[in-house]
Design a protein that fits this description.
Layout lengths: L1 H26 L4 E4 L2 E2 L9 E3 L2 E5 H7 L5 E3 L4 E5 L4 E5 L4 E4 L2 E4 L5 E3 L2 E5 H8 L2 E5 L4 E5 L42 E9 L2 E6 L6 E6 L2 E7 L2 E3 L1 H4 L10 E5 L6 E9 L5 E8 L6 E6 L4 E6 L20 E7 L16 H17 L4 E5 L9 H10 L4 E8 L10 E5 L2 H18 L3 E6 L3 H4 L5 E8 L3 H7 L2 H19 L3
Parallel strand pairs: 1-13, 14-18, 24-25, 24-26, 26-29, 27-28
Antiparallel strand pairs: 1-2, 3-4, 4-11, 5-6, 6-7, 7-8, 8-9, 10-11, 12-13, 14-15, 15-23, 16-17, 17-21, 19-20, 20-21, 22-23, 27-29
Helix pairs in contact: 5-10, 7-10
């Protein structure tokens, strides 16, 4: 009898104590990074760790979600983040970092973990000018940037709740959470060009480009590990399939002779692009991003290049100054349609039709960010509008979602609360002209919107990944109808009869 009571006591203890352990296990959560109230999508390799008493966070995803590019030099072990003025530079294993040329001490040295650079959370505050916090009980990193909209949009559910299609535009922010994550090793280079004394590479995938120089001969070398050339790219350039390489001459550019591109490495898994120089040249590098591509720019202009010329306007003439931005251009094709159409071509074609209509209206003066196959930097597009003291900024794009050809519709974006009413009106007219599914008006931190000082909207007219919408987008009748609708939207917003 005593033995039975003893076993009953053990059983009771067993039933009581494990519940506590299970509760603790269930309460364990993976760390989260929240930027301006929104959780940042994180891959498995992106970790938040506590090392030597410091909260260490992944630098790349934070910088990219704040619209900053990250340049990784694998050979030197350095990371550079270009900013509006100056830059942030740090070295793996070193407790000193340069912020806008000034040395700063770090509590813990940056380290590379599974291909991701981890830095102290406090360094994020110092380098990027954001407020930071760490909730140890909930394992949440909080980041608050300067000047976000006080009210988040309530645009209602998307028509297709299973997929919130990511707009294909070069706005520098990280892709929305619904974007498919591209695994390391599946990166492709889809565009390559040299114009305006800038080398530009459009690529996909989560790789860190390496940029370095050589002296014999003088050259600038860009390497993208675990990357291949896209089939579409190889059809547009000279390519030797036996040597896995090609090149093209560059004429009319002082100091540059030619450009070569190849697959290198023992397993041909690295894309190498070499720019051959005839004179020593300084250069800067930066990355711009959108949902479809990342664009690496190697700029051979001076460190403070002359700004692109802004088309003159006549101040005080009573006309509303409208800046029309045809998204993408040059090496950045934007998204690619089912029949290999290029978003950049659609954007420019529609933008030119809008320009033609605005030129006929005495109430407006129109300025284009580009009128041909060139690529003004995204921030520069906004700066042009600011310098003109424009009354409105309209960025034209087409959309895409990988692997979901059935997704379709029209959606529009804004950044500041000042722009919400403008985006609503433009979206209403755009939707009426396309007749596509209404994917609503949404908030996003795209560079061309974030840095514009006037009412600004980015319009995703339709999906090139949908066969029916792709065909419509490249129809002249459709583009003429949409162009007229956008002008009608501008007239309604500004009260023009």
């Amino acid at each position: 009898m005593k033995k039975c009571n003893w076993f009953l006591l053990l059983a009771a203890l067993f039933l009581c104590f494990p519940l506590s352990g299970q509760a603790k296990a269930s309460a364990k959560t993976n760390p989260t990074i929240v930027l301006d109230g929104q959780a940042i999508p994180m891959q498995k390799k992106d970790k938040v760790e506590i090392i030597n008493g410091s909260v260490m966070v992944p630098l790349r995803i934070i910088a990219e979600n704040m619209g900053m590019g990250v340049i990784w030099n694998q050979q030197a072990g350095t990371v550079t983040i270009p900013k509006e003025s100056g830059s942030v530079e740090l070295t793996i294993g070193h407790k000193e970092a340069l912020i806008d040329g000034t040395s700063h001490s770090l509590s813990t040295a940056p380290r590379n973990h599974s291909g991701t650079t981890l830095v102290p959370l406090r360094f994020i505050s110092e380098a990027m000018g954001v407020q930071v916090s760490w909730d140890n009980s909930r394992k949440v990193v909080g980041l608050t940037s300067a000047g976000p909209p006080a009210v988040q949009p309530d645009s209602g559910p998307a028509t297709d709740p299973a997929v919130i299609a990511a707009p294909a535009n070069p706005e520098g922010t990280a892709p929305p959470a619904a974007l498919p994550v591209i695994a390391t090793g599946t990166s492709t280079l889809s565009g390559l060009s040299f114009s305006d004394n800038r080398l530009m590479l459009a690529f996909t995938g989560d790789v860190q480009p390496s940029v370095h120089t050589g002296n014999e001969p003088l050259q600038i070398v860009v390497e993208l590990p675990l990357t291949s050339f896209s089939a579409d790219f190889l059809q547009t350039v000279l390519w030797d399939s036996s040597t896995l390489s090609g090149e093209q001459a560059i004429t009319g550019v002082p100091g540059v002779s030619r450009m070569a591109y190849e697959l290198s490495g023992t397993d041909a898994s690295t894309v190498r692009v070499t720019l051959f120089l005839t004179a020593v040249s300084r250069y800067t590098t930066y990355i711009e991003e959108d949902a479809a591509y990342r664009l690496l720019v190697v700029d051979l202009n001076t460190l403070s290049p002359e700004p692109l010329p802004v088309q003159p306007v006549q101040p005080g003439n009573g006309k509303k100054i409208i800046v029309i931005d045809a998204g993408h251009g040059a090496a950045d094709p934007g998204t690619i349609g089912i029949t290999k159409t290029l978003e950049k071509d659609f954007n420019l074609s529609l933008a030119l039709k809008v320009e033609a209509l605005l030129l006929k209206d005495p109430a407006f003066q129109v300025v284009m960010t580009r009128r041909d196959d060139t690529y003004p930097a995204n921030k520069r597009r906004a700066e042009m509008a600011n310098e003109l003291q424009a009354d409105a900024f309209v960025s034209i794009h087409a959309n895409s979602v990988e692997g979901r050809p059935e997704v379709r519709g029209t959606e529009s974006y804004y950044y500041s609360q000042e722009s919400r009413a403008f985006a609503d009106i433009m979206h209403k007219h755009l939707l009426g002209a396309t007749g596509f599914t209404d994917r609503k008006v949404k908030y996003n931190k795209y560079i061309v919107l974030k840095y514009s000082n006037m009412p600004a909207t980015l319009l995703e007219v339709g999906f090139l990944s949908n066969a029916a919408e792709e065909a419509a987008l490249f129809s002249d009748d459709f583009q003429n109808r949409v162009a007229a609708a956008l002008v009608a939207g501008l007239k309604e917003y500004f009260g023009v009869n």
